[in-house]
Design a protein that fits this description.
Elements (H helix, E strand, L loop, with lengths): L4 E4 L4 H10 L3 E11 L2 E10 L2 E10 L4 E2 L8 H12 L3 E2 L32
Parallel strand pairs: 1-4, 5-6
Antiparallel strand pairs: 2-3, 3-4
Pfam families: Complex1_30kDa (PF00329)
Protein name: NADH:ubiquinone oxidoreductase 30kDa subunit domain-containing protein
InterPro entries: NADH_quin_OxRdtase_su_C/D-like, NADH_UbQ_OxRdtase_30kDa_su, NiFe-hyd_3_EchD
């Protein structure tokens, strides 16, 4: 179990992240891992006074996740990376690279999906 973990939902994510920012929390990064049955965990890591607080979001990989890039601008890089590597979409990204942040057009498999899901052609 992760210390200082708060479970959030798609509906509460942006509000909880806004509270973290208002509290003076620094967004460190967030991590993503598939957990099976078409789901993934996204864990948002924050720091204040060298104490980490983590928001845990379990998502269906085929449903879009609200972007937090409107609250923490730098989140756009991590959200674009998750789109590239896990094929999880983010709604409201301040800058969407269209799954081309790290991936070239030659890539035909989603790299971090356990089921080696084939990518849809890029337009």
């Amino acid at each position: 179990m992760i210390e200082n973990q708060i479970d959030v939902t798609l509906e509460s994510l942006v509000g909880e992240v806004s509270k973290m920012k208002s509290d003076g929390q620094r967004m460190v990064t967030f991590s993503c891992t598939t957990i099976g049955d078409g789901q993934a965990d996204i864990i948002y890591h924050f720091d204040k006074n060298e104490v980490l607080t983590n928001l845990r979001l379990t998502v269906d990989m085929d449903k879009p996740v609200p972007s937090i890039s409107g609250v923490y601008f730098a989140a756009l890089l991590i959200e674009n990376e998750i789109q590239d590597q896990f094929d999880i979409k983010f709604d409201g990204l301040v800058l969407d690279f269209g799954r081309k942040l790290y991936l070239d057009d030659e890539v035909t498999i989603i790299p971090m999906c356990n089921n080696t899901k084939a990518m849809k052609p890029k337009k």
